[in-house]
């Protein structure tokens, strides 16, 4: 698969990639050396996709709609960028526990898990957010002592993992679309389809399920996305706010096409 997607990687690198596009390519698709990845990361975090989230993060690591602090409505209304999809955005931008912004959130999760709050109000927060905090910490640091046991609980036998994949292949997110469907980016369901594929991309049978129809479909989409004469329309879905956006803006369809191309390549790289 690497040889098949290399021309599309080259296309992105040769056509003014956004800072986060370049960073993700170097880190995930090219497996470049540490210094190249580090330099690309430092460059990318100076741009709006990063700073707009960092500016809205509270000092304890929470955001306006993610483990929110007790703040006045006036303060909460200022949070226009961060929402319930912010954690997915952190993963989507390939940020990890070494990132300062992520590290602050993970420290908050650890505090919630340990119950490190003295006031009755914060103890209420712990009860409300305990399970989400476990999930967030595990998603970034599966070997952290506070969540290491989860790996054992979630490890499935081959039979159960295949059964899960069979079920989910016919049940995408919220049943809005089946993963077995082949969805183009000009329809609203495309965002749900991509999220669904991303959610199962680490399943050991992912490549097998993708190979028959979905991989050829996505490779054809890649070809269309680099064709200057094929202006593939991209539907922006607001449910997953900014997930799949690696350029500074989505007001330009050419930038949208590059973003979708990178998102598709990240899936194909796992096949």
Give your account of this protein's structure.
- The chain is mainly alpha-helical and 271 residues long.
- It folds into two domains: 45-154, no CATH class; 158-268, no CATH class.
- Helix content is 57%, strand content 0%.
- The protein contains 14 helices and no strands.
- The chain has helices spanning 2-14, 19-29, 34-44, 48-56, 73-76, 86-92, 100-114, 120-140, 148-154, 158-169, 189-199, 206-211, 214-225, 253-268.
- Helix 1 packs antiparallel against helix 14 (253-268), helix 2 (19-29) runs antiparallel to helix 3 (34-44) and helix 7 (100-114) crosses helix 8 (120-140).
- The longest helix is centred in the middle third of the chain and has 21 residues, at 120-140.
- The radius of gyration is 19 Å and the shape is globular.
- 30% of the residues are buried.
Give the count of structural domains: 2
Main structural class: mainly alpha
Distance between the termini: 7 Å
| Number of H/I helices | 14
Order of helices and strands: HHHHHHHHHHHHHH
Mean pLDDT metric: 88
- Strand runs, count: 0
Sheet with most strands: none
Radius of gyration: 19 Å
- Low-confidence segments, ≥5 residues, pLDDT <50? none
- Helicity range of the residues? 55-70%
Beta-strand percent range:
under 5%
Overall geometric form: globular
List the helices and strands and how they pair.
Elements: H1 2-14, H2 19-29, H3 34-44, H4 48-56, H5 73-76, H6 86-92, H7 100-114, H8 120-140, H9 148-154, H10 158-169, H11 189-199, H12 206-211, H13 214-225, H14 253-268
Helix pairs in contact: 1-2, 1-14, 2-3, 2-14, 7-8, 13-14
């Amino acid at each position: 698969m690497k040889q098949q997607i290399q021309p599309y990687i080259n296309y992105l690198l040769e056509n003014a990639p956004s800072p986060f596009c370049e960073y993700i390519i170097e880190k995930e698709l090219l497996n470049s050396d540490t210094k190249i990845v580090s330099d690309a990361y430092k460059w990318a975090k100076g741009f709006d996709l990063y700073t707009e989230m960092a500016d809205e993060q509270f000092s304890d690591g929470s955001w306006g709609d993610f483990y929110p602090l007790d703040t006045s409505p006036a303060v909460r209304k200022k949070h226009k960028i961060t929402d319930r999809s912010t954690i997915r955005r952190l993963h989507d931008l390939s940020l990890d526990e070494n990132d300062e912004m992520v590290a602050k959130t993970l420290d908050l999760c650890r505090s919630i898990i340990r119950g490190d709050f003295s006031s009755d109000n914060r103890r209420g927060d712990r009860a409300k957010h305990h399970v989400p905090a476990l999930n967030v910490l595990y998603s970034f640091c599966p070997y952290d002592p506070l969540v290491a046991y989860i790996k054992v609980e979630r490890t499935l036998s081959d039979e159960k993992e295949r059964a899960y994949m069979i079920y989910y292949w016919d049940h995408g997110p919220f049943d809005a679309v089946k993963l077995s469907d082949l969805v183009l980016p000009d329809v609203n369901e495309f965002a749900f389809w991509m999220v669904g594929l991303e959610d199962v991309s680490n399943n050991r049978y992912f490549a097998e399920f993708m190979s028959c129809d979905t991989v050829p479909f996505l490779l054809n989409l890649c070809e269309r996305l680099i064709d200057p004469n094929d202006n593939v329309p991209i539907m922006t879905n607001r449910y997953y706010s900014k997930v799949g956006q690696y350029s500074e803006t989505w007001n330009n369809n050419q930038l949208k096409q590059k973003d979708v191309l990178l998102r598709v390549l990240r899936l194909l790289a796992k096949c």
